[in-house]
Amino acid sequence: MTAHPAQHLAVHVADRLAEPEAAPAAYRAKDWWRQSLAHGIPGIALLHIELAARGLRPWQRAHDWLAATARAPVTSGPDSHPFHGAPALAHALACAAEHLPGSYQRPLHTLDQQLAADTRRRLDAAHRRIDDGQPPALAEFDAIHGLTGYGARLLHRDPDSDVGRAVLEYLVRLAEPLTVDGRELPGWWTLGGPSGRPDTRFPGGHANTGAAHGITGPLLLLSRLARHGITVPGQLEGISTVLAWLDRWRQDTDRGPAWPYWITPAELRTDRAAPNAPLRPSWCYGTAGVGRAQQLAAIALGDRARQLAAENALADALTDPAQLAATTDISLCHGFAGLAHIAARAAHDALPETAPRLRALVPALLTAVRREAAVALVDAPDAGPGLLDGAAGVALATLAAGSTDPPRSAWDACLLIS
After folding, report:
1. Running DSSP on this structure, what letter comes out for residue 358?
2. 31 strand-pairing partners
3. Left if phi > 0, otherwise alpha if psi is -120 to 50, otherwise beta: which for 286?
4. What contacts 236, CB < 8 A, 6 or more positions away?
C-alpha cells in the first residue's frame, strides 16, 4: 500500500531530527528548550513516539529524545507549568509508556507525585483567591500555564485521581460569576491582557475565549471528561454556563458563526462585541477551537441540536475564504496543520449529517502544508523544530489528519481536543 503524503512528511521531518544533536545549535544551547513541550525537546519526542507506535520508525529515537530532556533535573514548583518542566516531561513519558508496558515507571511515579503536589498548591491558592472575591490571572486556569493543563495530565494518567477531580471542582467554581467592585463578571475575567501581563490596551481586563489561554480550554476539559463519565457535582451545569456565555457573544456572519478572541469591559457594558475583521479560526484562538469545544460539550450534554450547529460552524469556518486568508502559516497552534487535525478529530465524532462534510475538508487543508515548508521550519528562527509553532507539530498534525485512524499515542491530549 502506498503511504499517504502526510506520512512522508512526518517521517521526513523525523529523519531530519533523528537525534537531539541534529537540532539547530541555537536551540540546543538553551536550557528552557530542554524542558519545553511547546517549543523544545519533549514536543519533538512526541513525534518520534507517534511514529514508533505506528511502526514507522524505531523506539530508540523516542528514547534518545526523552533521555535528552531528563539528562538534568527538570523544573517543578512555581516555575513549571503544563508546557514546561516536570509536567511536560510527564506527558511525553506517559505517551511512550502506554505502548511500552513496564517502561519509565519509576520516573513517571516521581513526576506524578510532583504534579499532584504542585496542583494542590495551585488549587489552594485559587480557592483562596475566589474566597477573597478577586479575579484570576490567566495562568491560574488556562490550558498552557494553568490548572486546566494540570487536570488534563492527572486525569489522563488516572481517571480516579483525587487531585484531578479537585481540578474539575475548581473549574466548576471558576464558571460561577464573580462580583468585583459592584460589577458581576464571569468567573474567568482577568485584569491583565491576553499575554497574562498588565496591558494598557485592556484597561479593566478582559474575558478570554481562546482554547490556549481562555475559557474554551476549561470547557474542552470538562466536556471531554464528562463524555467519558468522569464528572464531579456541578460539572454539567458549569459546561452549560460557559456555553451560554459563548452563545451570548457569538457573531453571526454571512459565512456562519464566529467568536471574538476576547471581550473587553466596554463590550461587556454595552452587551455588544465590536466588529472585527475576519479572524483566523485556529486552535489557540477562534472558531476551530471553540467549535470543537462546543461539539464535545454537546456530546457530553446529549444536545443533538447544539452538536449539529457546532459541526456546521466548524465546517463553515474552515471553508470561509476570508478566515482562511487570515491563516498565514502551517503550524499546529494557529495554522493549516492544526486546522486539518481538528477537522479530522471533529469528523470522527460528528453526526451522520455533518461527518462527510468535515471529512472532505481535510485534504484541502492538507494541501496548504508542503513537505519542504515543514522541514524548513526546523531551522526557522521564529518557529523551529518544536510542537506548537514548529516542524514536529506540523508533522504530527498532518500525520493524524492524513490517516484513516486517530493518533496511536495520546500526543494531542495536551491540546484537549481528543
Report:
1. H
2. none
3. left
4. 226, 300, 301
